[in-house]
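TA notes. Do not distribute before section.
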Amino acid sequence: MVANVFIEPLDVLHLRGNRLFGEGDGGGGANMPPWPSVFAGALRSWMLVSAGEDPVAYGRGNGLAGPLGEVLGTPAAPGSFALTTATLARLGETGVEPLYPAPADLEFFAAGDSVSVSRLEPSRLPAGVTSSAAVSHPPILARAQRDKPLAGYWLTRRGWESYLRGGLPHVEDCVARSALWTLERRLGIAMEASRRRAAEGLLYTTDAIHLNRHPRTGFLVSIDGLDGMAIAQRGMLRLGGDGRSASVHQVESPPPANFDTERLEHSGRFRVVLTSPGLFPDGWRLPGCDRDGVWRFPGGQARLVSAAVPRAQMVSGWDMATRPPKPKPAQRVAPTGSVYWFEALEGGLEGLRKLADQGLWSITADNVNLARRAEGFNRFVIANA
């Protein structure tokens, strides 16, 4: 059973990234969109409180009885709870409209008062040209005019569905970041906890995220693994740094239309697009993909042709379930929106579909990351190539 919830902040959010505070007048950067683990922690805490359970006792490893215990498990051994989607969304009269970050193979350019959309395509290098790329056909943008691309665009549901079927989103289906949120600089001062007073000379600034209210902008999060257990229809939760308040309520949000099955089966070519950060044992490579580019997954295999993977990011965070809270290990991830091109699919679509439903965890034996699985990492969708 998958439950969809819309989370709407009631104040600015402190979504802290990995830019640390310096000495004296330092600054802390925001991470937008936040890691899926931010929502996983907030929602599990909300579920505990809604059920009358003590989050502190849960953090000590005390077992939970009944369906809630089966779903949440313990911090050391998570249950069936897992995030499958965590993305921006807008709430209107017709319901919730999810928004998707533009994948790495799309580029946006200024075209007068509008924008144009182009796509990178795997290309064989001309004779005499060599490359250090780890793929046989590096992704290249074929464009006559050399312009600097624009950053920060998101796709509407219609634009995302067009992309998954191998097309280019229309201009009206591309949403600029400035239409979704703005950054606000907030001033703070460090505290001396032992003396219960402000520390002298330790001013700092942080980036706060202010989501737009017209239309109402928030986050759409999908929870899998509830196994028939009902959760509250609505409520309040603490989200991000400083525990800022946000409202949460269940919504209907059907998944986007799928790729063109007949086209994929006929050509054997497809793309894998990460919809959450990829925590892989071999850097940017998908689990199960060897150095020769053969990707083996349960029920089939395919050959890697190309990849568009932006610069790696570092994900960490705080383990708030333990007492006292402690930082999580910093781990390198392939960013959301990374794209991998494959061809020569063998074994049919059943194994590939099942893998997309479960995430990339089923082809890695790294049990250390069970908590990250529950937090929604390593999720992807299939798109036509």
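Switch to the second chain here.
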Amino acid sequence: MKKVVILLIIAILLGGVGVLWWMLQGTAEPKELTREAYTLQEEGALEGQLDFAALQEVNPDIYAWIHIPGTGIDAPVVQHPEDNGYYLTHGPRREENSYDAIFTENYNDKKFEDYITGIYGNSSEEGVAFYDLYRYTDKKFMEENPYLYIYLPDCVLEYRIFAAYVGDNSHVVLNYEKGADEMAREVYLDSIMEPRSMDAIIDRNTSVDYNSKVLTLTTNHKLGNNFRFLVQAYLEQIKK
């Protein structure tokens, strides 16, 4: 009989510990959504490799990470499978806000293999997603900070920034068919290298050409809804 009582007491104590652990888990603060917090530390991990399994527990739409040295842009990249407007009103944790998400549309694949890929973010005030893109209106800043990095589960894509200017609100990815057609790529690159904006910053000493895979970072502009600020970069190397 004593043995049964002891076993019951142990079971009750263990049950209480389990409930307490569950309660603490429920009230624990979520991990800060930073690159450092999700960098794999385990043996065999590549330098700087991110834990995308853990990131997708935060939000299954997270599939990449963008980092632009010299700026505050260091954040996950998301893509909603169905609603391309979803991240205009939601943040990277799927919380309701229209400031923090950096996203692509489902017209582009998630491996950045299209010749033209668009990434979008808000820049309406300091500290939000793409606010620091405007630092590329300074030629010297572009010269000193020419690279951006896209982290994927199995590699890091290194891009070289070569253009920054004010453009219209046309849909670059769809207008040029994602660059699938060679002639479309030629027209697209020509439009970048000869923009209408007089204050455009263009680095003509890079090796970008019609066969380069170009990343277009797009954000809103103070001139209104008919304008966008664009920063262009081309894929220079893949690090594995």
